[in-house]
């Protein structure tokens, strides 16, 4: 059996379609891991995680473009960094960062390390949500 350009093209198209269908089928099942703040460690750097806690402090960077929020879950605390692009995204949804202070939230962010301390960087403007309880 001779492989012609036409047959090779058909094989490539079928293989591509199977791959795309597989991606579509399995993508919704990928979930962000929910962890307690005390369980976040250096082995999780660059991982996206979800945490719950109360925002106990809100401060702005010297340049006034970013925010630093302290999240406390009653056992540990971690700093959440919100960059200018995410602040703008939140403001378009009529959310003010200061309104989150003293409220329980759920946050999805990426674990990073700065000055030997672990921090979370907010994933997107809609990754910070107030919750009840």
Describe the structure.
- A five-stranded mixed β-barrel has the order 2-3-4-6-5.
- A hairpin with a 6-residue loop joins strand 2 (48-60) and strand 3.
- The chain is elongated and about 70 Å long.
- The chain is of the alpha+beta class and 133 residues long.
- The mean pLDDT is 89.
- It has two domains: 1-30; 33-130, Beta Barrel (OB fold (Dihydrolipoamide Acetyltransferase, E2P)).
- It has helices spanning 5-26, 84-92, and strands at residues 33-34, 48-60, 67-72, 77-82, 104-114, 117-122, 128-130.
What is the fold's blueprint, element by element?
Blueprint lengths: L4 H22 L6 E2 L13 E13 L6 E6 L4 E6 L1 H9 L11 E11 L2 E6 L5 E3 L3
Quick gist of this model?
The chain has about 130 residues and is of the alpha+beta class.
Number of strands: 7
Which structural category fits the helices and strands? alpha+beta
CATH superfamily of the largest domain: Nucleic acid-binding proteins
- Provide the CATH topology of the largest domain: OB fold (Dihydrolipoamide Acetyltransferase, E2P)
Distance between the termini: 67 Å
Q: Sheet bearing the most strands, described? A: 5 strands, mixed, barrel
Taking all Cα atoms into account, the compactness measure Rg is: 21 Å
CATH class of the largest domain: Mainly Beta
Q: Count every helix, treating DSSP H or I runs of 4 or more residues as helices.
A: 2
Shape: elongated
Helix content: 10-25%
Widest sheet: strand ordering:
2-3-4-6-5
Order of helices and strands: HEEEEHEEE
Give the total of domains. 2
CATH architecture of the largest domain: Beta Barrel
């Amino acid at each position: 059996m001779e492989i012609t350009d036409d047959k090779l093209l058909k094989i490539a198209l079928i293989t591509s379609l199977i791959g795309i269908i597989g991606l579509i089928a399995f993508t919704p099942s990928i979930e962000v891991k929910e962890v307690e703040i005390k369980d976040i460690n250096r082995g999780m750097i660059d991982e996206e995680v979800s945490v719950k806690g109360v925002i106990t402090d809100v401060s702005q960077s010297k340049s006034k473009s970013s925010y630093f929020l302290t999240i406390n879950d009653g056992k540990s605390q971690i700093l959440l960094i919100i960059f200018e692009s995410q602040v703008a995204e939140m403001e378009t949804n009529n959310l003010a960062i200061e309104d989150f202070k003293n409220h329980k939230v759920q946050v999805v962010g990426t674990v990073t390390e700065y000055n030997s301390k672990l921090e979370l960087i907010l994933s997107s403007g809609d990754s910070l949500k107030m919750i009840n309880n």
